[in-house]
Amino acid sequence: MKKIIIFILSILVFPIVLGGCTHDFSRKEIDEIDMVLLLGIDYSDGQYTLNALYSTGGGADPEKSGAGGEKIAEGKGRTAFAALEDLKQKNKKTITLAQTGTFLIGEGAAENGLGESLDFLTREETIKMEGLIYVIKDKSAADFIKEGQKNKQTIHEDLEAIKQKQKEYVTRMDNSVVNILNDIKQSYSSVMIPYLLADKSGYQIKGYTVFDKLKLKDYLDHDTSSGVNFFRNIIRNYPVYLDNDKVNLLITYTNTKLKTKVQEDAVSVHVKVNFETMVKEVLTKDNIFTTDSLDLLTKAQNRYIQKILQKAVDYSKTNGLDILNLARLVENQNYSKWKTIKGNWSQQVTNINYEFEIHSRITKSFILGGG
Amino acid sequence: MEQVINSQQIKELFSKSGDVLVRPIKINQNNITFHIFCVDGLINSQLVDQAIFQSMLRDDNLRHCITERAVMDYMVSGGAYHVFTQEESDYQLLLKFVMSGMVAFIFDGEKKAIIFDIRTFEKRSISEPTEEGVMKGAKDAFVEVMRINTALIRRRIRSEFLVIEQLSAGKVSKTDMSLCYISNIANMETVNKIREKIQAIDIDNISTPAFIEENLIENKHSLFPQIMYSQRPDRISANLSDGRIALVVDGMPFVYLLPCQLVMLMQSPEDYANHFLVGSSLRTIRYISMLITLFLPAFYIAATTYQNQMLPVQLALSTQAAKQNVPFSSATEVLGLLIAFEVLIEAGLRLPKTVGTAMSILGGLVVGQAAVSANIVSPLVVVIVALAGISGFIMPNQDLSSGIRVIRFAFAFLAAIGGFLGLAVGLILLLTHLCSLDNYGIAYMSPFVDIDESNHKDTLFRFPIKYFKKRPQKIVPENRIKQK
Fold it and tell me: What rounded mean pLDDT belongs to chain A?
């Protein structure tokens, strides 16, 4: 009997004692919480503004979805954390960031610095690490959200669609909270976050935002951003529009290998890209599936990809920004020499010598005859 | 009272029992009188008349038996034809034999009796197992008569090494039992331990399974069954061949198996009736169901009350929407519905079948739907409790199913107190308890905790039969080879 009493008591006492490990029990019924689905972070006139978008019910129940919708809560403060606290205080229900899938950084906040804008996230234990971070080009996150509401968009669902679309083109999304927070911690390479553009039909990602010392530097165009993706080896699908406009292809497989060398404090990078394409459009009556034609096409598509890669390289060298995330690679592959060159890394970036080796093949044409 | 076989004494002993017959019979050929002692309803009176009395009536040889001793000797040596004929001088044994349905001829002068086994009584015929039915496989199940059950086992194991030891327990009920094992396979230490435990049973009546089970299991406080039962002779015989020991108890339509491990309780005869991949899949589903029934209600409570980040966004949103107008906390909802579910099961068992079905519909569907419509419970909780409930019944062993049903409450309660932390504490305690259980020297979690890989081929997955080369190491330390 004594044993049973001890057993029951231990069951009751264990959680209470161990509960001290977390700062509180955080006991809150799910319907007493406003789950923030999207958080916009803005900075202007010396203060931060956070805009939290949360669902007002309805959820996935189609019968109730009519009644449900999205609501925005706003908080302002001297810092992002102060703004979050203000937001929590103003809101009727408790706010949680545990379900926040998207963080939008307004242009102002991006210019003010990522470190200041996102530091509060690194200390929030419930944050979803796979949540995605985007920069809003040319406007504040608040305006972006409000315009979406004005256009009667279900913003978090549209952003979810963007995420799905992003997955169609890249194999890995480097703009997750955990990745960006890691990138912020290391100081040699530029942080790259995709930027979002909005119009009445919806949202789209055009390219990367480049940060220099965690402050907004530039917005890359689509081709340069694609070049960065090739360097990062995350391309899943990519269209190849050849100059003659007669044959268009789609990359279905890529593999990029980077090998760095440091000789007499000069860095060289050997870029080896292997990719496969499928013919997607043939606008000529000539038979393009002959050996010679295919050989010509292969060479043409190699040149096309090299041009894209070169764009990314040129931007990096011109601006002295390591947008290709080479610092970590050089450090890993040349650890002892890295110590001597890391001090003037931005200078080194402008002088890196790139060698390209591009191999490709055209596969699965489906049409075996002429165009 | 003197413990001597005497008809007068026995007559007085049973003077108030109308079914006990003690009547003098005179042998005309030699004028010797003996008394017939039997229980009406337990004996085959037609056979007594035909096989014994009619042959005695025409038997001229009896004329030469002029003493009781001579008559007894003649009868035992073939004067009264019957397979089981025995002379008995022990008063207590005589009473036991007659009370179990045998016929005794008492010779007062000799203070002895001759016993004839001419038992017959109303019994259920062999039918299909109600709990362990299979589509492909034998359809016979044990009945309430011990001797029929031992015969069903013997029919499947024709080895001369199959031992069926006769035992008895219960001071008043004197219930017959048979301890069955294969002498050249089973671990005799375990056999002796079980025999000792049965002999040590000091209770009046073995009327229900718990009277046996609680005397044989080693950890009486555990909710996990430590003795397995089966209605299927094929299953018992398979386990006997694996070195386990069976206990057949008169009056119980199933046979016990010892030592028992958790893995045995998750196995079903169906696993061995199908292709090994099908059997493995079914078994995997069973293990998943066990996790669902144990943890799903607790997981729901923890996720909706403490750590909602564990839910995917869409599920969190729909859960939130479903719960919005419900006045109770998630824990109250789940625990309340779990109790209601148990009430429904209990009511269904007690009521007649026809009413039971109607009540299930009324209770489960009508009241459930009305409760959801009235916002007393959220639809998701109904789904979760129903899923957990149904998953619980997938367990092949009802004792395990009942145990898990109780533990489910404990987990739900722990989740209500501490969320996933409480759940983790519960899980640690459960695993510690399971790993500490020991069944006749064999770990309850064996073979999961065994090093020998040959033991793992019939656990989570059912390997093809050709891989079942060795018997379980812990159960059969020697003579392990099953097939080459």
Answer: 86
